[in-house]
Amino acid sequence: MAGNILIAALVVADQHLHTPMYFFLGNLSCLETCYSSTVLPKMLASLLSGDRTISVSSCIIQFYFFSALVGTECFLLSMMSYDRYLAICKPLHYAVLMNDRLCLQLTIGSWISGFLAMIIVTILMARLTFCGPTEINSFFCDFIPVIKLSCSDLHVLKVVAFICSSVFSVIPFILTLTSYICIIITILRIPSTTGKQKAFSTCSSHLIIVTIFYGTLIVAYMLPKIDTLRNMNKLFSVFYTVITPLFNPLIYSLRNKEVKEALRKALSKCVAFARIMEM
């Protein structure tokens, strides 16, 4: 969480990072911070206190914010891939096409779409009757573990959830995949090896994050629910809710010269300020 907050602060503070790519990155870091905040506080409190209870209303609220942020990340990653597509495939028109106004519109659209995506599903879940076991087979209030505890008719809820998840996750995934297919085709057409490496380096960090994010989602939600994989799902749930937000700032900071330079400048200013305060 601290790493994501640091990257967001660097993007705001450093003038050299006021570009579309880093504007999206700053939003991704804010999203990852919110992402972890929906799950980690309750999980840590349960581990420290031993009290693993959660009310139905709190569980539904946690599910809504978690699923909304997942949807937002799907859209935001697709917007970032579109940004890289314009930068690599249409470099001469990039500054005109990806202007400040469009960046703001794409970002606001991603956040609004994510939070609108699961409203209907959350309302339907709030109307469920829970009369069976009270133990959720997960470390947070995820969709499948929660509805398994209900004795209500789940047909309408499952259909609506399938439609919403298809629209708000599959479509961004297809857009992201299409962008990277075009990017790869363009890179392969570059004659020089140096040019290929330079072009690929501008999108490699984002590609790694996209692969980790969608890879863990696919394993957690799309593989058959057999006993062996059911326990693996918990592991991958931990991975994309806790580990992935931890990796993202490391991936961008270690593979990006601009971020490393901004971090170096920020540390130098902090050291200089500390010395002044000691005088």
Structure notes:
- With 279 residues, the protein is mainly alpha-helical.
- The protein contains twelve helices and no strands.
- Helix 3 runs antiparallel to helix 5 (100-117) and helix 3 runs antiparallel to helix 6.
- The model has no long low-confidence stretch (mean pLDDT 81).
List the keywords.
0% strand, mainly alpha
Ordered list of secondary-structure elements with their pairings:
Elements lengths: L1 H12 L6 H30 L6 H34 L4 H4 L2 H18 L1 H8 L16 H5 L7 H34 L4 H9 L2 H19 L4 H29 L1 H22 L1
Helix pairs in contact: 1-2, 1-11, 2-3, 2-11, 3-5, 3-6, 3-8, 6-8, 10-11, 11-12
Contiguous low-pLDDT stretches (5 residues minimum) are none
User: What's the story with the biggest beta sheet?
Assistant: none
Order of SSEs, N→C?
Answer: HHHHHHHHHHHH
Which class do the helix and strand fractions yield? Answer: mainly alpha
How does the overall form come out from the CA principal axes?
globular
> What is the helix fraction of residues, given as a range?
over 70%
Radius of gyration using CA atoms only: 21 Å
Distance between the termini: 33 Å
Strand coverage percent:
under 5%
Number of helices: 12
Total strand segments: 0
Averaged pLDDT: 81
